[in-house]
Amino acid sequence: RYGEPIVTRIYNDLPTDRAKNNGFGRNETQLHFHNAHNGAESDGAANVHHFPGTFYDYRWSTALARRDKINTQAGDRRASGPDDNTGLVNVAGDFRELQGSMWAHDHRFFFTAENVYKGNLGAINYYSGPDRGNEELSDGVNLRLPSGKLLGWGNTDFDVNLIFSDCACDAGGQLYFDIFDTDGMLGDVPLVNFGFAPFFEVLPRKYRFRALNACMSRFLKLGLADAKGNPVPIKFIANDGNLVVTPLTLTALPVQGIAERYDFIVDFSGFKIGDRIQVVNHLRHEDGRRPKEELSLARALKGTSEDPVVGPMLEFRIVGAVESVDVPGVILRSTDPDKSQVPATLTEQIPIVTPVRTRLVEFGRSGTGDSRGPNGCTPDCGETVNFPWTIRINGESSHSMNANRISLLIPKAGEVEHWTYKNGGGGWDHPIHLHFEEGITMLRNGQTPGPTENLQRKDVWRLGESGSVTFQIQFGEFGGSYVNHCHNTVHEDFAMLARIQLLTGVAGTPQAAVTPTPNPTEYGVYFTTPEILPEGAPKGWTNTQQVQAQLNTSPKP
Ligand SMILES: [Cu+2]
Questions:
Q1: Dihedrals φ, ψ of 336, to 5°?
Q2: Distance, CA 60 to ligand 1 centroid (Å)?
Q3: What is the pLDDT of residue 547?
Q4: Separation of CA 14 and ligand 1 centre (Å)
């Protein structure tokens, strides 16, 4: 909940011997909270992985963005979190930037796909005054979205996280992963919340679902089908954890790239007990490069696709009673009144304004990634891998990930910029993730995008084949070292990431200066002075803090 900071201590209890990994995965980890408003040291992607036998403390701020500019005195009741009963605790910041459906996952550079595939991830819900997780409490702020009523806030009886993924197994039934394939990793086994062929008993009433695509490389297109194969309408209420201004009635969800989250409402009240509804994937892949074809619901249901993850992934079964998960022992019945609501307006639009500057970030494939320097990769990478994936800023030089290189530098808090993420082409698609702040989607291929994207706040954008996306962004309050990267985690590991340096923290603190690069080792951390790409820094910016950064560097332990 907003306003209640959390220290999350992650213990690394993995074997100290790297070879004891059953063929893939790295025994070092950093946990990225996607896409919370946290300081860089707690973002989990600032080259801060830690080793077996150690722990790392993440300060999860639960701060609301723009608290330095908007509603600074915390007088707006919509900018709030639930208290221990049914009241609210106001927080400073902009209620239009409240977030909901988030997640956390491993972000060990060069090994993220292998570690996340092994299960190092989880869903996280943020609760706020408007998005309270209580469907009956009426106080003029609470939207009363389907959730439940037994707890003051955070009910999950009718508000359910669904993590969609795919996996492959070896002959012994263990997870299989090809560490040599840099195109992408496709599984042939569909999973929801890591269960195979799952079903879920629901009452004939409204439910909210929070769908996360947690595949390594697979894009999804999900829709619901009744027993006759007809689409079941849904109401789309949030994109990447950000409420839309107006709920959209759809017959299927939009295509969902890796790491994208879609929240939607299904009203099962028209069904009778015994009915069954399938959640169906319509999108066919042939490889990890990009989705190949969007099938009709009828074709997807036929089960004739050569892609085994096309077709039903989850079955809803309408029942007369279920046991509460919020208060175990309480029986919830189909005859209970459903007092939940889906209001016509969920939040307010943040306007698009004239930017201070624009940037072009191109995600391509030059085949000559420069992650490996004379002393190896930063951080260390697999011994023999090469790096086909590169990122180019403002049309200048192409680079693959090096944690000691700053590709984008943000000089000042609160400056509004317009960024274009462009796909370098070649028959690939890339879902690109920006850490720490959300962008307001303005253009797709230079045109107004469809309603599920247009003016929506997002933190992952599918670029489309040879496509582009333009969004409005500003950074503030915290600073330090963050990244943007492809969330096809295989592309990410080979090494389609670029470091972003924010000088947007409180003036005079380390979060307002260029961060010396932490280099974690088994014996401690040493710091190096990062290189700054000239095209990554705004024109006229000079690094007066560089001397300080050099003073702060330290010898290798
Ligand atoms: Cu990619």
A1: -65, 140
A2: 28
A3: 42
A4: 29
Instruction: Using the mean position of ligand 1's atoms as its centre, give its distance from the Cα of residue 496 in Å.
Output: 7
- Measured in Å, residue 310 CA sits from the centre of ligand 1 at 21
Does ipTM surpass 0.90 in this model?
A: no
Are 215 and 164 in contact by the 8 Å Cβ rule? The answer is: yes
Under 8 Å between Cβ of 369 and 494: yes
Query: Measured in angstroms, how far is the CA atom of residue 363 from the centroid of ligand 1?
Result: 8
According to the model, what pLDDT value does residue 131 have? 98
3-class secondary structure, 234: strand
> Which residues, other chains included, contact 392 with Cβ-Cβ below 8 Å and sequence gap of 6+?
361, 362, 364, 398, 399, 424
Which residue ranges of the chain lie beneath pLDDT 70? Answer: 544-554
Ligand 1 centre to CA of 458 (Å) is 17
Distance 486 CA to ligand 1 centre (A): 5
Tell me how far the alpha carbon of residue 184 lies from the centroid of ligand 1, in angstroms: 8
How far apart, in Å, do the first and last CA atoms of the chain sit? 40
- Out of 1.10.580.10, 2.60.120.590, 3.40.50.1360, 2.60.40.420, select the CATH number for domain 131-343: 2.60.40.420
What pLDDT score does 550 carry? 53
pLDDT tens digits along 288-313 = 999 999 999 999 999 889 999 999 99
* Alpha carbon of 216 to ligand 1 centroid (Å): 10
Ligand 1 center–CA 488 separation, angstroms: 5
CA distance 294 to 292: 7
1-129: CATH number? 2.60.40.420
What does the block give as tokens for 40? 């860089």
Q: Hey, what CATH topology would domain 357-552 get?
A: Immunoglobulin-like (2.60.40)
Alpha helices in 204-324 (DSSP H): 297-302
Cα of 130 from ligand 1 centre, angstroms: 35
